[in-house]
Amino acid sequence: MSVSPAEVAVVPDTAMPHARLVGVTRVFSRRGKGEDIHALGPIDLDLKRGEFFSVVGPSGCGKSTLLDVLAGLATPTSGTAEFEGRPIAGVPAGVGAVFQEDASFPWLSVTDNVAFGLRRAGVDPAEIARRVDYAIGFMGLRGFADAYPAQLSGGMRQRVCIARTLVMQPRLILLDEPFGALDAQTRLLMGDELLRMWRETGATVLLITHALDEAAMLADRVGVMSARPGVFIDIVATGWDAERDSRIVSHPRFGDLTGHLWERLRVESLKHLREG
Amino acid sequence: MRSALGSAVVVLVLLVVWEGLHLAVSNSGLPSPVATLVRLGVLLGDADFWRQAGETGRAFAAAVVLSTFAGIGLGILLGMNRTTGAVAQPILVNLYALPKVTLYPVVLLIFGLGISARIAFGIMHGMIPLTLFTMNAILNMKPVYRRSAAVMGLTPWQSSFYVVLPAILPEVITGARLGVSLCLLGVLIGEMFAARNGLGFVVMQAMERGDMPSVLAVALLLAVLALVVNAALLALDRAWRR
Amino acid sequence: MTREGWIRLLVIAAAVAALELACRLGWVPVTVVIPPSAMAASLVDILASGKHWADIVISLRSVAIAAVLSIGLGFLVGAVIHAWPLVRGAVEPLLASYYAVPTFMFYPVFIILFGVGPAAIVAIAVLLAIVSMISATLVGLDRIPLVLRKTARMMHMGPASRALLIGLPAALPHLFTGVKLAVAYAFIGVIASEFILSGAGMGYAIAYAYNNFDNREMYGLMLLIILVVTVVNTGLDAVDRRLQARLRR
Ligand SMILES: Nc1ncnc2c1ncn2[C@@H]1O[C@H](COP(=O)(O)OP(=O)(O)OP(=O)(O)O)[C@@H](O)[C@H]1O
Ligand SMILES: [Mg+2]
């Protein structure tokens, strides 16, 4: 099999994990003002290239902290984090993130928001226009291209952020409860769009969610985290094929899957509720 | 505690800058901090100074009491109704931003040259922020508070006293903090222009004599007093918000 | 215009009409207040005769200089204090009480430092106005959402472009509140200093007219100041409201 040099850089070895965390922990020091907060870990995780991985866990267990480590926004207190074989130091090229909080820029229109990163990267204007237009259509924002975030609903603003990340064509996409502001039905439909995008781009996706059905439907594997400090207490392979969509919620195995996830999570969530 | 230490350091730095200016300007008349404090000591031992201070104190106290009651009362009245609030808001904001000193002659023409003009002028300054803050606090109060009170079976009077009042109090205290400071400013400006009494008058006289140590001694005294009163109200404000 | 806007206009018009009537019927002696129509006529005369143009120019120039200085310096000082938590902890408690200090009393100090004339008055106005800009800058920089900083880092932006393209627009609504207050205080500082302490400018002209029992001229000048300040404030307010509506989240 002949491989062109450009592809060698991006696809060096399919056996090697796309991103790898080994013994990663994160402790927030409070400098004498009370006990340090052990927020996360130790975490061991291999993300395979092109897989769709979902993370579920009780509130405050360290999911967003895990995302910060993978995005290069936070350094692990101990352990190592790698992306494409190199240790993560600063934000690696090829990683995109959509955060839990609304990160749309209120002073820019939807179009300018989505184009922001591409313009910073000095991409050719015609190419920018093409990609932005596609992403806006893809995210169902067609009629709002010239609107400002203040005029949009919370769910639409989150879609602006997703579009802004997608146009950069990242190889690893990190999503932190991107559909948190949506109703359950729209959520499923957005999930379908996400699956379509994932298949088209071949990117690796890590999706943090608190909706078990969303995790079970979208992911190849679902990681279940314990209460803080969050560690993976179970990693469940869903076994769906790549061509799945939201209709699998009526598949007989789907109920078993979410049932199993809830069984693992129930105890941990109770812990969170009791300890606060 | 650490911030108190830091503030002390800032005050020390200001004193050093003052001393530096005194040395830089040399004999052209800017007194040193020490000379100012010595003069303040002399003034504090002077019976006439205390009479003038008493005059300022009386006008200030009257203005504070009257503007507090009038300001809160008017604020509540305007805040009871969305429309009156929306109508009054920009007018009050504009009054707040207006250089009210230009209106002082009107006050003098109405009240004459006595203490009542200074009191009225102090009220003009102090009342507006209180009215504005009280009104906004009532208008911005979450409607769900009042509805919850009604659901829990409180009478309107009970709900005013146990729900509305505690809900708006922090804002009212903030308004009072501004109002008290501005009352003092109004009274002093009044005394500096066309008066024969009060600390403002003392300062104006000293200015005319070119008696800089006295000017700075009185200014310093008033600045420290204003800071202390304001810091006390700030502490009250914080304690309540907690 | 909104319904409230019309009611407001009506209330103001009614108040002016009532004053006019009270003056015309002799309920209020003309030695105290002159009818609003006479104030307006006096204002027209003042502007047409050009008698006070020099005063108007002096005052407005002082206000403009004081406003620009306090906005610029206030922003700089605010940004430096914000980047320096130790200094901030020390300065902030003083800032909160600062406006309580009767600034006007320090006028003689500025005369010694800057000499007699507009510079001392500008200094007083700056002293009065700068603190609201410093406080607004601190608030604005504090309120830049953490998630926007994270987003900027995800886009590999350097510190300079981060500050310029993310920090500044995100802080803008708060900064503008500071601008609005700084302009208002610049007006108050300049006019009040002129009124009590100086020998030129619109504030002085009013005091002069009062001392010479020239009520007509005095009320004309008062009306002028009130109109100018109201127009400036209303304009800034309109910009402010648009900024808040679009940018505040
Ligand atoms: N900057 C910080 N300083 C101190 N503690 C922090 C900080 N960030 C997070 N924490 C703590 O770390 C823990 C994990 O936080 P994290 O945001 O990762 O949780 P999460 O799983 O994303 O929660 P949620 O589901 O509510 O979003 C929490 O207890 C939180 O209080
Ligand atoms: Mg989170």
Question: Which key terms come to mind for this protein?
Answer:
heterotrimer; B: 242 residues; mainly alpha; MetI-like fold; 10 helices; C: mainly alpha; 82% helix; 0% strand; globular; binds adenosine-5'-triphosphate; binds magnesium ion; membrane (chain C); ABC transporter permease subunit (chain C); transmembrane helix (chain C); transport (chain C); cell membrane (chain C)
Number of domains of chain C: 1
Instruction: Tell me the number of helical segments of chain C per DSSP (H or I, 4 or more residues long).
Output: 10
Question: How many beta-strand elements of chain A?
Answer: 10
- Cα gyration radius of chain A (Å): 19 Å
Sheet of most strands of chain A: 6 strands, mixed
Verbal overview:
- Chain A is α/β, with parallel strands linked by helices.
- Chain A has 2 domains: 1-94 and 170-276, Rossmann fold (3-Layer(aba) Sandwich); 104-168, no CATH class.
- Chain A has helices spanning 5-10, 63-71, 110-120, 125-138, 154-166, 184-201, 212-218, 252-275; strands at residues 19-28, 37-47, 52-56, 78-83, 86-87, 95-98, 172-176, 204-208, 221-225, 232-237.
- In chain A, the strands form 2 sheets. A 6-stranded mixed β-sheet of chain A has the order 6-7-8-3-9-10, with helices on both faces. A 4-stranded antiparallel β-sheet of chain A has the order 2-1-4-5, with helices on one face.
- In chain A, a hairpin with a 2-residue loop joins strand 4 and strand 5 (86-87).
- Chain A is globular.
- Chain B is mostly helical.
- Chain B has a single domain (59-241), classed as MetI-like fold, CATH 1.10.3720.
- The longest helix of chain B is centred in the last third of the chain and has 37 residues, at 156-192.
- Chain B is globular.
- Chain C has a single domain (54-248), classed as Orthogonal Bundle (MetI-like fold).
- In chain C, helix 3 (53-82) packs across helix 8.
- Chain C is globular and about 70 Å long.
- With 249 residues, chain C is mainly alpha-helical.
- The longest helix of chain C is centred in the last third of the chain and has 39 residues, at 159-197.
- At the B-C interface, helix 1, helix 4, helix 5, helix 8 and helix 10 of B face helix 1, helix 4, helix 5, helix 8 and helix 9 of C.
- The complex binds adenosine-5'-triphosphate and magnesium ion (MG).
- Residues 28, 37, 39, 57, 59-65, 100, 228 of chain A line the site of adenosine-5'-triphosphate (ATP).
- Chain A: This is ATP-binding cassette domain-containing protein.
- Chain A: Belongs to the ABC transporter superfamily.
- Chain A: GO terms for molecular function: ATP binding; ATP hydrolysis activity.
- Chain A: It holds the Pfam family ABC_tran.
- Chain A: It comes from Rhodoplanes serenus.
- Chain C: It is found in: Cell membrane.
